[in-house]
Amino acid sequence: QIVKTKDGNFLMVVKIGGFCFQTADQADIDMRLSARNTLLRAMNDSRFAVYCHTIRREVVPEIGGAFDNWFCRELDRRYMAGQAKKRMFVNDLYVTIIRRGFVGKVGMAERAATLFRKGFGVDTKEIEREAIRELKDTTANYCREMASYAPRTLDCVMRNGVVCSEIAEFLAMLINGGAPLSLALPRMPLDAYLPTKRVTFGKKAMELRGASSADTRFGALLSVREYPAYTGAGMLDGLLRIPHELIVSQSFALEDRAPVMTHLAKVERQIKASDEAGTEVEAAITIARNELVTGATVLGYHHLAVCALGRTIREMESCVQAATQELQNFGTIIVREDMNAEQCFWAQLPGNFGYIARRSLISSRNFVGFASLHNFAVGQKDRNRWGPAISIVETTSQTPYWFNFHRRQVGNFTVVGPTGSGKTVGLGFLLAQAMRVTPRPRVAFFDKDRGADPLIRAMGGSYEVLAPRVQTGFNPLQLAGSAEDRAFLHDLLNFMVRPRDGSDLSALQIKIIERAVDQIFSIPARERRFSDVTQLLRGAERMGQDDLASRFDVWTKARGWLFNNDVDRWSATNGVFGFDMTKVLEDDDIRTAALGYIFHRIEAMMDGAPM
After folding, report:
1. What gap in Å lies between CA 1 and CA 166, rounded to an integer?
2. Exposed, middle or buried by CB within 10 Å (0-12, 13-18, 19+), for 372?
3. What is the pLDDT of residues 463-483, one digit of tens each?
4. Least packed by Cβ within 10 Å: which of 230, 388, 474, 598?
5. Would you say residue 588 has pLDDT above 80?
6. Residues contacting 326, CB < 8 A, separation 6+
7. Which of 230, 227, 225, 228 is nearest to 365 (CA)?
8. How confident is the model over 515-529, as pLDDT tens digits?
9. Is 407 or 195 the better-scoring residue by pLDDT?
10. 3-state secondary structure of 553
11. Torsion angle (degrees, nearest 10) of CA 128, 129, 131, 133
């Protein structure tokens, strides 16, 4: 988890999933900015520095799974062929926390004390162990406070029996044009192990030459020359939408309060002695000093560079123009590096402070505005509740979204949209894509206006249209007779014969229905008819216009098309079935009874397999 640099610094890298900002309230975004500022304030002194990297790289999204239905298989083939023609990107976010020695006069004193200890034979390894402990504690606290951003500390992982270093893979992406690599844990210095491409610097561009032309990239480096007057959350979010590959590198090296206060006092005196006395510049310096004194912020040296990439010079130039435009939208003055290009390139690596050519003293609140750690929703590709992702859809930033019905273990899913917007089409597509899951999911589709009729039949399923005076083939009396079946039938009959004035059934009537249910299940299943229920109810209480038999009579005559059938033709052999409820939605009694029976059948099918 830890890398030691040649300068004796220690660093840990955290991969950030990011905060999905598109649908977030602005108040929530601003609150998160303040929370990130508080985390930087907690680091407190010049022994800590933070790097933030955004690596936007092109990917070819793929998804596994096999289909046993010809329609679902052909739909997936055509859809994935269309996706393969699009350019899609992913935005990988990384935060590197560096524990170094003090800087400035305090640093000189610290180094002198270390030499003094060595002279007296004191073990300096204890100093390193203390630095590592502080780094681990700071990183653990950072991950804990940033839990909503999905942080994960990079570590060594086992792949195909080989121990691989995730930190080495991250560093390799920075110096190889963002190309992802799988690297085994090295037994040699990283500076000799990581490069896989030959880097050649020109006047305004560079070439990262790989083993083949397809592996070669061209790049240009952009740096901030002048900062905007104000910063806010999400200032660099536009870079997440650029249709090109790029690497955004930022560093923030905290400074101790005493030298910063001295620097601010000097600047304040210079402003008062200049023509800018009494202007907004002087007021801004005063505000910065007050925030520093009260601990509302800390100051540090910041640098920001963008490495624009492309497979060709033309593509790279297009990326430069797009990135420059996005950065200038907030009043930032951008310079394209020429003489400083090589320094700027190596400054992308965390801890290479000596290579930073352009740095400026800014507040921690300004820094977290630049490094908002925003991202677009990506979903989860694998290790989901049903295994692989259901499908891949493209976001507005040209990033793939791995769609799943589940969020962790919860499988709730809602589609919202106006009439005619394509809700049924979208839901039907996702159902067809879900057939890649093993074991194959079962589907119960409740439809309106027969919108999903062709889909359900194309998937090899059965489709039932519930319409008045059209026999459904449902007969709840022919259920198997389990305890659940008996309880359901009891509730169903209670509903069918409930008083019309909305009052409750009497205790005697409930007892009559219980005996009727028991007697029904004593009859062979194929011989059970709704007319049997009428006979059982008619002789159990005094006859009248509103007795149980009279109330039930309508379910054998006018409404007999629903349940008064000789044979229960319910079949879920294929596992895919749909019901059109359009013509029964307005009848509360019919709708409730029909859905109650269908839901009972569906619940009986739930055995832990996907549905």
Report:
1. 9
2. buried
3. 989 999 889 888 998 888 899
4. 230
5. yes
6. 236, 238, 239, 242
7. 230
8. 888 888 888 888 888
9. 195
10. helix
11. 170
pLDDT digits over 428-450, tens only?
A: 999 999 999 888 889 899 988 89
**Calpha distance 594→605 (Å, rounded):** 17
The pLDDT > 70 percentage for the chain reads 93
Both tokens of 393, joined, read 């859809």
- Do 373 and 149 touch, CB atoms closer than 8 A? yes
The C-alpha atoms of residue 428 and residue 430 are separated, in whole angstroms, by: 5
Q: Which residue type occupies 233?
A: A
Spatial CB neighbours of 607, under 8 Å, sequence gap ≥ 6: none
Q: Which of 319, 320, 310, 2 is nearest to 134 (CA)?
A: 2
Predicted TM-score (pTM) of this structure? 0.82
More confident: 90 or 272: 90
Going by C-alpha positions, the residue among 132, 190, 142 that lies closest to residue 165 is 190
The two counts, helices (H) then strands (E), for the chain are 19, 21
**Where do runs of H (alpha helix) occur along 295-370?**
313-328, 341-346, 364-370
Report the length, in residues, of the chain.
Answer: 611
Residues forming beta bridges with residue 333, ordered by sequence position: 226
Amino acid at 128: E
Residue in the block written with tokens 């990262």: 208
What is the CB neighbour count within 10 angstroms for residue 469?
8
